[in-house]
Amino acid sequence: MSKVSSVYSNCGMCSVRCPIQVEVINGRVTWIEGNPYVAGIESSLCAKGSAGLSLLYDFERPQYPMIRTGERGSGQFKRATWDEAFAYVAEALNKIQSQYGKKSVALLDRGAGLFGEIQRCFLRAIGSPNYFSHDDFCRKNVDLAYQSLLGYGRPEIGYDFANTRHMVFYGRNAIEALGVREVNNIVKALTNGAKLTYIDVRATKTATKATKFLQIRPGTDYALNLALIHVILRENLFDRDFVDRFVTGLPELENFIKPYTPDWAEKETGIPAYEIINLARQLASDSPKVILYPGWFAARTMDSFYFARSVIILNALLGSIEQKGGLILAKTPKEVGAKGLNSILERIPAPADKRVEAEEGKGFLYDGAGHILHLYRAIKTGEPYPIKALFVVRYDPFAGITHKDIKEILNGLDLLVAVDTNYSATAWYADVVLPESTYLERDDIIGLQRGAKPTLVMRRKAINPIYDTKGKWEIFTGLTKACGAGEHMPYETIEDIWNYQLEGTGIKIEDFNKNGQVALCKNPVMYSRDELKFKTPSGKVEILSSKMTEREVPYFLDFQTPPKPNIEEGEFRLVFGRMAVHTHVQTHNNKYLNEIVPENELWINEGVAKKLGIKDGDTVEVSSGDYSGKIKAKVTPFIHPEAVFMYRGFENEVPVKTRSYGKGLNEGRLLKGAFEKMAYGSHTGALFECFVKVRKA
Ligand SMILES: Nc1nc2c(c(=O)[nH]1)N[C@H]1C(S)=C(S)[C@@H](COP(=O)(O)OP(=O)(O)OC[C@H]3O[C@@H](n4cnc5c(=O)[nH]c(N)nc54)[C@H](O)[C@@H]3O)O[C@H]1N2
Ligand SMILES: Nc1nc2c(c(=O)[nH]1)N[C@H]1C(S)=C(S)[C@@H](COP(=O)(O)OP(=O)(O)OC[C@H]3O[C@@H](n4cnc5c(=O)[nH]c(N)nc54)[C@H](O)[C@@H]3O)O[C@H]1N2
Ligand code: SF4
Ligand SMILES: [Mo]
Questions:
Q1: Which residues contact 531 (CB under 8 A, 6 or more apart)?
Q2: 45 ligand 3 Cβ < 6 A
């Protein structure tokens, strides 16, 4: 008789974490599909989610803890037991912290997300405040913009695509850079007759679904928005009731926006003035059921923080906040009448020291997780104080900026520890590799999914680990104990953690058996305008943000025309993005996904390519001054002449990942100077500000 079971869990193939149902037969995972009980998923998964099986059964991933024996990056490691690895790390940390202080240890995380509190506990338990997340290269501008205007962070904002009338996406290539539920809702809206205005430098898959595609000059989205605000204010198209009740700073905005007319914006963006005026009028007539989407990845240009603010201001002017078919604010457990989880982090005393960037004066915003570029600078220069040990968790900094920069930075460390499920380039360079079990082989702490209906989610293992790997909770409790701080994480089993988290909530571990989730209220909670209050000090949408006042950040930024690449000389702005079948840098060696797309191409405008003698399918050389590589050209009319584009994350350089080794070209290695570019007001990265040269190879 076969033993068959179904486990409800969460996908781990990208950071969206779609709910899944996993089928296990005789201890082997045989099938993964979307959790059929969750609306908007209805059993569907994307290609990456379905390919989870070939991550699980891949032998080209780290199978046991390893300690480096050769040069950094040589790939020479010795196998260690977990106890040996923990003891090795603890001893090194002890030495570093005695010499440089407790704060000289940092942890760089892909992001706290649903299940990420556990690694923060370790850092806090050993007394360091230096927690950093990848957000500076991803969504931080959107997050800080929301915080500055509404007092809510980005994870607390939902978008009611299913019920909207008009969506505006700025390079938010949602059909390809996807989350299953979001795509399903967007498609539902389009089927119901909603409009989608899509703005990008190239015609993406999302552009092909759009009602209107507006091709924009690279780096000028902020100019477009200034003109949209201009028209909406000049023509009185805004939602007066919402603005009167909830928006402060309108006269200052009106004054600032005066010179930014549609005719002016046409010259900057290449989008005709009449299109801008039409869009503003359409949005007004579709309002309040409109969503101007500030996107996800907004670490693009130097003005990205102000761009993100302009998108949120547009939503506020159109009254689409806390509105069906618009933006929805997350409710805390308390707001829906429930008790939330107990925090395993908050029970540990916070360190007295300040994070590196908190010592760097004012002029930029910061919040819960530190700024990566400040961290890198501290490691490199020892200012404002030295960082000598770095834990990298579920993140691959090697894959983001140039080798020259990242090596220079990481070589400043006495200890580099990677916690990864794969051989990332950073793990390959690390002193100690602590292999985490894949999401199908591990339990995680309970997470709170925020929204109008806050919901607790549990990730449970479908099978026991195949190799000598551990879950994150085991790795970080183990490390904490080895460092002599075990009293802060007194857990022996995952149930100890779950029970602590659930204590006093009235919810039990068994309550997750039914479908992996427990909602904290029956129906989504939304506020009427009479009940609505924002989380800013004034309770309003603050265009003149208190947070910015306090941090001495200007409220407005004048638009600066981006530099023009010398196209005739084969110079272009390098832009890049995600593809539907891959996740950043982590899936290119996956047996199934590698088979579907093994390498990338370089999109280049047809007219320009002709002048440079480049034909479709030719091999071209792309160079930045620090690095050059070869890639196949995709010659197309569907990209702006000033930009070249490639899909992200190819050209794996870790030889033991044999399927993807050396295939394609990595955009990160070409980002010369990106390390020095800090966006205005937010100090995030500005990854689309680098130019490259292209010529026929
Ligand atoms: N050059 C360049 N830099 C970028 C971007 C870009 O497009 N180009 N994009 C930016 C954005 S938006 C983002 S979100 C980041 C993405 O940051 P990346 O570092 O590119 O992210 P991923 O490929 O998602 O994953 C990083 C590592 O996490 C590991 N991993 C996956 N699952 C697990 C797990 O369950 N446990 C553990 N411990 N490790 C796991 C993977 O194997 C991988 O090595 O990069 C940012 N930086
Ligand atoms: N399949 C898949 N889905 C993912 C991910 C993944 O790795 N794989 N990662 C997830 C993560 S972490 C993130 S952050 C999101 C990212 O989601 P998105 O931001 O939607 O994704 P990208 O592919 O980075 O899109 C960048 C787009 O910006 C365009 N662009 C370049 N310059 C400009 C410009 O000046 N103006 C405008 N308007 N557009 C421009 C590019 O042509 C490209 O289409 O995707 C998420 N979803
Ligand atoms: S979008 Fe795809 S890869 Fe990401 S969590 Fe959902 S199913 Fe998994
Ligand atoms: Mo991201």
A1: none
A2: yes
What is the 391 CA–ligand 1 centroid distance (Å)?
15
For residue range 613-646, list pLDDT tens digits in order.
Answer: 999 999 999 999 989 999 999 999 999 999 999 9
Structure tokens at 491: 């857990």
**Which atom of ligand 1 lies at the shortest distance from residue 668's CA?**
1
The count of other CB atoms within 10 Å of the CB of residue 595 is 12
User: CB neighbours of 323 closer than 8 A, spacing ≥ 6?
Assistant: 160, 288, 289
> What pLDDT score does 111 carry?
80
Q: Point out the ligand 2 atom lying closest to the alpha carbon of residue 220.
A: 35
158 Cα: distance to centroid of ligand 3 (angstroms): 18
Which residue matches tokens 């082997």? Answer: 28
CA 507–ligand 4 middle distance (angstroms): 33
What pLDDT does residue 236 have? 98
**What average pLDDT does the segment 192-221 reach?**
98
Task: Indicate whether residue 648 lines ligand 1 (CB < 6 A).
Answer: yes
Report whether pLDDT(434) > 90.
Answer: yes
- Taking the C-alpha atoms of residue 577 and residue 498, their distance in angstroms, rounded to an integer, is 37
| Residue whose token pair is 């006042």 | 549
Give the residue whose CA is nearest to atom 8 of ligand 3. Answer: 49
Ligand 2 neighbour 677 (Cβ under 6 A): no
Q: Is the CB of 16 under 6 A from ligand 3?
A: yes
DSSP state letter for 509: G
Which of these, 646, 637, 683, 684, lies nearest to 668 by C-alpha position? 646
Per-residue pLDDT of 201-210, as tens digits, reads: 999 999 999 9
By CB atoms closer than 10 A (0-12, 13-18, 19+), residue 610 is exposed
* Residue to mutate (ligand 3; options 15, 16, 584; most atoms within 8 A of CB): 16
Whether 112 shows a pLDDT value over 80: the answer reads: no
**Distance from Cα 397 to the centre of ligand 1, integer Å:** 8
Residue 133 Cα to ligand 4 midpoint, Å, equals: 11
Phi first, then psi: what are they for 199, rounded to 5°? -120, 120
- How far apart CA 607 and CA 604 sit, in angstroms, is 9
Contact 140, 299 (CB under 8 A): yes
For a substitution probing ligand 2, which of 15, 201, 220, 648 has the most ligand atoms within 8 Å of its CB? Answer: 201
> How far away, in angstroms, is 299 Cα from ligand 1 center?
15
Mean pLDDT confidence for 266-277: 98
Confidence check: pLDDT of 500 > 80: yes
Answer whether 674's CB lies under 8 Å from 401's CB: yes
Q: Does ligand 3 have an atom closer than 6 angstroms to the CB of 46?
A: yes
Ligand 2 pocket residue status of 218, Cβ below 6 Å: yes
234: pLDDT strictly greater than 80: yes
For residue 454, say if its preceding peptide bond is cis, omega within 30 degrees of 0.
Answer: no
299 C-alpha to center of ligand 4: Å?
Answer: 9
Whether residue 455 has pLDDT greater than 80: yes
List domains and CATH numbers for the chain. 4-56 (2.20.25.90), 66-138+340-519 (3.40.50.740), 153-329 (3.40.228.10), 567-696 (2.40.40.20)
Task: Please count the other Cβ atoms lying within 10 Å of the Cβ belonging to residue 361.
Answer: 10
> What count of Cα atoms within 13 Å lies in the side-chain half-sphere of residue 334?
1
Instruction: Calculate Rg over the CA atoms of the chain.
Output: 25
What is the residue-wise DSSP string for 377-437?
HHHHH--SS---EEEEES--GGGTS-HHHHHHHHTT-SEEEEEESS--HHHHH-SEEEEBP
Distance of CA 666 to the CA centre of its chain: 19
**Relative to the alpha carbon of 173, which ligand is closest?**
2
